[in-house]
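anyone seen this seq b4? input:
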Amino acid sequence: RRPPDTEIDWKAYMQEVEGFANGTLDYTQLKGDTGPLVYPAGFVYIFLGLYHATGRGSDIRLAQYLFAGLYLLNLLLVFRIYCRTNKVPPYVFFFMCCASYRIHSIFVLRLFNDPVAMVILFFAINLFLEERWSWGCLLFSLAVSVKMNILLFAPGLLYLLLQRFGLLGCIPKLCICALLQVVLGLPFLLVNPVGYLMRSFDLGRQFQFKWTVNWRFLPEDVFQNRVFHAALLLAHLTGLGLFALHRWHSSKENILTLLKDPAQRKPASPHLTVNNILWQGGQQGDSWIIFILFSSNFLGVCCSRSLHYQFYVWYFHTLPYLLWCTPTTKLAHMPKVLLLGVIELCWNTYPSTVCSSLSLHICHGLILLQLWYGTAPTPVSHTPPLNRKPTAISKKAQ
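predicted toks r here
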């Protein structure tokens, strides 16, 4: 038997896409029991498919089976990312698979759109690791079109594109991301462009205090205060700037050299060889890419105006890497596992309490300190050599 609130969001999703199925193209007219549709167009198309597959949303059991398959696919994509880095001890994967009641609920019980977006995102990261940057950007943009939390990875991705291709080289990749958003939203943009943009990309939307997981210890008037929101945005931008300058960019050259073509930059090391450049596809290069993307997202989560229970999936599968990406002694393994357990406990406390929200911030702060003071993966050089083989790699990256 399903809990009584299991179907709330699923029914709202089905009501929102039902209007589109009936021919409504004015985005402001797509609504459900929980309010107006506030997700971009990719969400509409994907859940419209689920709407038809489940008999207009009536067969919830079938939908749960489909989301169970999505959960297994998500684990496969995440495991493939972790295997490329070889940094997280194998026993940690048990906690990732079996020890999170909240994640299982988000995927299989509540059928939220957040896991759909994250599965597409992890697929995109796998493509980045394979140097398939154009296809990766396409899927990254598709994930954004399902839910905008994927934009928390965007600063890290922009840094990687600039480092890999330079300013002129990354413009086509950014155009891929923008073009897909236009194509997906075109039916709605042609009818009511302002309504579509205001509803699907509303960055100023207010959150309800009763659902917050991370700011329960604040008075509600402070939680809703725009000054508080501006302070969090400033903290987020400051954190990104500091990480970009001191953690992501370890070259002695000015960070503005990222705007140059990679062939015009100075080598990162005077002993740079062809073998070193070819190593960019190995574990060190993979670790560096994942470190930037995961830390970019984590900074956004830490500075979020509110975290609701389904938002746990935004960063749950990245936590083991964030904890173990820096060199670790055997004695430090147990505190890191304990940290994962405390975070899980905070997310399973319903409703959230002053203690649970404060504990969550303390855990986030400890992870940030480790990311800041630990030894980050070494960046790899993308300076094209004069040899034929690295040229082939460069073509593959395009």
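Residues 269-281, 382-395 have pLDDT under 50 and may be disordered. Strands lie at 31-32, 35-36. kinda curious what u guys think
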